[in-house]
Records
---
Amino acid sequence: MDSLISLVYAAKILEKKANVDFVKHKLGEQISHLDDLALCRCAKWLGLKSKLQDVRLEQLVDLPKPALLEIKGIYYTLVDSDNKFVQLYMPRTKEVISVSLTEIAHSWSGKVILLQDTGSSSEQPEHGFRWFMPSLVKHLSQARTIILISVIVQVIAIVTPFVFAKIIDSVLVNRSLSSLHVLGIALLFLALFEPIFGYIKNVLYSHLSNKFSSEISSRFYGHLISLPISFFDTRPSGEVTARIRELDQVRQFVSGSALTLILDITFVSVFLLFLFLLTPVLTALLLLTLVFYFIFWLIVGGNLRSKVSDEYKESANNTAFLTESISGIETIKTSAIEDAFFKSWKKNLASQLKASMKARIVSVISEQGVTLIQKVSSALILWWGVNLVLSGQITTGELVAFNMLSSQVTQPVLRLAQIWQEFQHSLIAVNRVGEILNEPEEKYSEGLASSDALQGSVEFRDVKFHYPGESQEVLKGINLHISSGAFIGITGGSGSGKSTLTKLLQGLYSPVSGQVFIDDADIQLTDSVGIRRYMSVVLQDSCLFSGSILDNIKICSPEATDEEVLNASKLSGAHDFIIDLSEGYDTNVGESGGLLSGGQRQRVALARALITDPKVLILDEATSALDYDSEAAIISKLPEITKGRTVISIAHRLNTICHCDTIIVMDKGSIIETGSHENLLKQNGKYAQLHDLQHA
């Protein structure tokens, strides 16, 4: 974390708009082990070119500044240097200190990260409430109607106090019953129309809020599922879920009372004008009260925002822990570690409640402070106002009218005190949600014109890859060519890079170096999302979605006919067990397919993959959960499954790939053997060893 702070400071010296929170969000969970390569990648996100190298002590003077020096495992910003001293920025104390070269020599590792402005802006997103504006602007016509009705309601609120003043000053003093009847009827009409227009305004506003909520929720979810898989790999699902919940906080604020309050406050200036016409002295006293409100908010607001931010972080951590506990409940029970998890839960809950309590205390102080100012101001206005009446400067009716009108000023301001707290919550929430909203989506277009456009030839050219935030290479210079229509088997030990190879082919990740081609087109320069439509993947533990078996099979091809569903099910071996179920294809699979056995889920997943008639089929340990009879049934249908398409089958059990055209053996990120089953056995290498172990 200290190294990251130093990098951000260096970026600011180079006039980059940099902040630590942005880079922390990009790193996700990898922030806990920030190595040299990860720090260089962070520099790239900030619009900087970086170079890691070893230098001698005497070379520090000539190094371009700023640079990063590694001292005892932490990088410090080198601000300046001469023949005797260096100026270093200390990330913990946030100050620049002078250190002698002699002191540096004892603790410096010799590593330096040189930084250079690339001329491009940093990739930090501009996020905030502006993201919600297009959805509001879209419904401006309805908003205008609400504003018009609000104007009518406010006009009634202005007229009513003056009618009361007229009754008190004219009717009570002059004993004029005729005036009383006229003014009384006017009051009745005002009392009748105000709630009617208020009702219409609230109904229209609720309708507008619902449409607004629906639209921003749809936009958010559409963006979320369009993010690259690397986004989800580096973040716990519970954290993502927590941020989705925070969208509700923002939506409730924007579509709740915020817009109504803006309208109310807009009319405050109008009410102040009428108050000034009644009595400038009391109006000045009321304005002084508003100044006190404003000063109080300035004092409390910053502290409240900080406490609310801490509360949100603890809540997100707790949600992540809860999500992980529920998803891993079987492991928790079979390992008999319920007590350990319960203790961890109580510890997390205590931290969350502590943060919540601190935020609540500041919130209560805010509420009571506002109430105190309100009570004192009311007492002062009444005290001063009665003196003005007794001295003949204003009438009793004018004092009553002033009090009624002043409430139209103070009530919106008092509501603002409450909504200010909601705004603090929403401000934190919108920043956390905005970090997701401003993540770049995957490349998307209409893709290839038809499935015939994809032939299925694949080539890897000197591909190297490591996962985001990791320095260890998973793939090391892979060179591989797969002809269209070939049946390829890939095997090797766990962690050898087999599955990673297919993830690059799908465009889920980009190579660190090298190129991946499909039909002689670099997948990084084409529409990877569109290409994926012509690929199908069956994973080792494929996910099914709540609904029927039929729904899951047709999810990738909603227009599929019953005949196509039947053919895909028979080809995958799913049809035999489906017809034995009481509800057949209408059987509910449950959450994540939990009502089916592992083998049944795999066969349904295979049927789902085959129904799209993919040009490239990837089987990633697809038969590992099947019993031997079911596996043998699928193996017997492999000639039919592989016909007319490129098939890549990843397997540990060699009997599922021994009939492949070519078998690739991987170890520690490299291809070590290639050939047919018979040729590999003759080579007496790694493949032969695996074969002997499985057939011992």
Note: The longest helix spans residues 338-390.
---
Amino acid sequence: GGSAAAAAPGAGAGAAKAAGTAAPAASEDGEGPSFEAGRITRQFCLDLTEWHRSGRKLGRRFAYQIVCETIEVLKELDSGVVDVTVPAKSEITVCGDIHGQYYDLLNIWELNGFPAEDNPYLFNGDFVDRGAFSTEVILALLSWKLLYPRHVHLARGNHETMAMNRLYGFEGEIRLKYDEGLYDLFCEAFRLLPLCHVLNAKVFVVHGGLFSREGVTLDELRQLDRDCEPPDAGLMVDMLWSDPHPGWGLCASKRGVGVAFGQDVTADFLRTNGLQLVVRSHELCEDGYSVEHSGQLITVFSAPNYCGEFDNAGALMIVDESLVCKFKVLKPVKGKK
């Protein structure tokens, strides 16, 4: 790929080159980087970045291995609510929807650094569908998750579901680039993804939003069986699909799934659970993020120039241990989408 995007300079690209990723080690089937002694390494993740950046496909064996090993890691989670500690003098970066925009994901890493134990990330769902490079996005995210299971967090979005993947491109893309067997494994991995994360017992991070009934507790959410395709209604569907509205109370969602919840609903949920803030994604924001509900709810969306059709920016949200939030704005990457 000789586009501007493929050659985009930046800290990430420079770091990757410095680490010697210009010529990825070939796997046995001649298709890209390979594990070392059967284990994933940081070098593999960096090599994979460059391999995919240049428009090449990872060998089937390693694609399968990444997804299979991720499934085993996700099976170890004892609930769909993951508690994340942001230690003193550190911070975590929250990313919203990416939707297969691989070159924008690379831009995130060039702007903010690759994942590391001292540079943790939380990707808040909707990794796939719509964009043309869902395969590259999800293989990258799962690779980093495998390498740093306690420092790279992945949440399920409404597009990490079979119904959406059939309609919006991921299923077809995987069948085209790989095969049905790999798609089935991705579906299994998606069913095991957490539904939400709680940062320092104070910040509730979920893909969609809040609930169609009052009094929902974190303990109740911990009891949910996440290993399924979403039902027609209920707590899981609300978490994946709901949106805030600027008024009060609950009303029907414009999406026809989930609910639209007002600022009193947000305030009640926070008070019930001793929380301070809701962070969610799921909705395009012109500036990449928006602050609503009297500062108690933030939307972060990380796919700039969404689908090539909108003029929106994307954003990253960086949260420190005292829960101070700052934002980095993502401009669209010219060239590839």
Note: Confidence is low (pLDDT under 50) at residues 1-30.
---
Amino acid sequence: MSKIIPRLEPTPAVVNKLAKLKTNPKKAYKMLHLGKTIGKLDDNPTFLPWLQYINLYRNKWGDHTFPDDALLGLLKDTRPEDEVVALLQWMKHVPGMKTRAESMQLYLFEYLSSSSTHKLMNEAWLQSRENPKNVFRVLNRAERVENRGIIQWFRYTELYRAEVKASYSEAQALRFLEDAKASMNGAQIGTLLQAIKEVPDLKNTAERMQSLLFRKFIRVYHTDPRDMASLFMLPWNSWGTILVMNKSDPAYKAWEAYTLQYAASWGGPTLKMQVGQFFAKENPEAALNAVLAFKASS
């Protein structure tokens, strides 16, 4: 993909001609033979004026006359998938197209893509050295079904970190996630990370980030597992509810991980082993009492 966007004339001749004819952008696309272009669309001298014409057409006749999904559908129907994915990233640098391009990236991610498309999207972002916070802005608008958006973001962040090395650490990624999810408390962030731990290729990363998060609550805020349970149960239930939760629930599993880390931090491997045995016997109350008793005696 070309990285340099040439400066557009205010009204290129092709735009004037299309405007006079009141041509629908889809029809104009065919008239300009853009779907049959040999090579890349961003190298075609009429493609940028066509994009400019779309903005003029929508401004005059309304967005509904050629919505973003219609533009994306037209590109997908006429161009290879890898080119479409790269084009959307390239279009973010076209004057007046950034918001629309990000909207189409979201639409492509949610409704028209497969795992191979997701991989292509990450590759396009990485080639542009897109900061993870910008990728998050797109993916955070995705439906929350199975955390697909956040999983994609984690995978991109891993690629980005491998590329830029020490300049973007897991601690930075965690701080960004906490800021971006400001409506969630620390326990809820921990629960989200617990869900990500179930994704095989992200398990280790999510585990380390969760440990970093919990370390802050243990060492800085001095939050014991009972108080942390209250945070896990907000906004509807009391802390004791966590003791009778389904053991496969991400909130319960995150609280179990917190309790074990708390035990290791304050009582070392011996206390952690004791607490772990109670959890293995599905006796979370005994696990909690063991930690609280140690805390009271220390």
Note: Residues 185-298 form one domain.
---
Amino acid sequence: MYQTHYNKALTLMKSGKNEEAIIEFDQAIKLAPERVGAYFNKGMALMELDKNEKAIKVFDQAIKINSDYAPAYYGISKALDKLGKHEKSMQYYDKALELNPSLLKKPFIY
């Protein structure tokens, strides 16, 4: 069931239906709260809706589950940058690269 909600959410995101995608990510998170991918993509969907503060909280949840999950640090960096907090953004960006130097070579779903 997790994968069904997660895949549906990704499809909705690709179609620009971010609010609907967030609902599906929430369902996926309820079914498998330890899977950080749903948190990351939910955060990216929130950023698409300019809900950057909420996105940061969601990315932070992923970090609490897996403190080595580089995409969540990258997500926080992007959200902070959108909020004009450039210096703090760079700290998270650096952390993401420290954890996974090839991170920026990988495509992200958002």
Note: The helical segments are 2-14, 18-31, 36-48, 52-65, 70-82, 86-99.
